[in-house]
Amino acid sequence: MKAYKIFFNTLKEEKWIQELAEDGWLIEKIGFGYTFRKVEKKLYNLKMDYRIFSKQDEFEEYVTMYEDFGWKHIAGDKSSGSQYFIHEDNEMQSELFSDEDSQRARIMRIRKMLRQTMAIALVFFTVLLSQKSITISALINPKKLYLTPGLWDMSGSAFWSAFWSETPFVLFRGLFMYALTIMIIIYIIFSYKVQHEYNKSLKNIK
Amino acid sequence: MKRNRNLPLTETVFYILLALREPMHGYLIMQEIYELSNHDVRIAAGTLYGAIENLLKLKFIKSVPSQDKRRKVYARTELGNEILRLDVERMDHMIKIAKAQ
Prior knowledge:
- The complex is a heterodimer of chains A (206) and B (101).
- In chain A, 54% of the residues lie in helices and 16% in strands.
- Chain A has helices at 10-22, 56-68, 100-130, 136-140, 156-204; strands at residues 2-3, 25-31, 33-38, 46-51, 71-75, 81-87.
- Chain B is mainly alpha-helical and 101 residues long.
- The longest helix of chain B is centred in the C-terminal third of the chain and has 23 residues, at 78-100.
- Chains A and B meet through helix 2 and helix 3 of A and helix 2 and helix 3 of B.
């Protein structure tokens, strides 16, 4: 089964994947969308850890250690962040973390990743502004999207021919500018919201 | 006297350092701790992995060469010996004064 869904909050993604496992759908691959496989058993011991590795052998050593503890790695790779495991003993309740410090540390790793991407988005936005790819004044006053000198002082057919010949470019530039700005703003709003949710999850660990 | 800022050690860290009186890999550390604690402390995989990562950063333990290519083997360092000794002294003192009451 293939499912398409977008999660901003990695903890909500984990919960969704766990609920599906309890219905007998086991996560197989996370990439563009999610791939699940039907299994006989209902799986109650599906857990997520969050780690990004710089080296492949570090990732392999990590997986080996978890496997020694009876955790089978089922989804995730070196740089995916989310690492999904199921415990071979389905009857016993098993946890990946046995103290509060490490439970908190996992959420802090997820939050750190979010903060890093947010910082990159902000830098990206600033660069676009400084390169004049996005100009605030043009967003507020679309007339400024027309670059023909003296266009708005022209009149009659001279105005209309200049106006119509530039309009396709303006639409393209304008659409790009608006779409990008809206996307970045939505992204920043969501990131703040999710960061707040992570902070709440951190407080709930007691 | 200024106290070392890594003190007191958490139960997890204390037991890991204690277990590493001889070199061993992750799963063996967990089993050793389970025995040492009279089957009271069972450290989970993720907790142990994170703690080892931290202890390596603090240079309280180091990874040592081994035959096993897929598993890293760890050993306590001089710094690790020292911090363990300090924490034992700290707890020793607390126990002494508690018992004297």
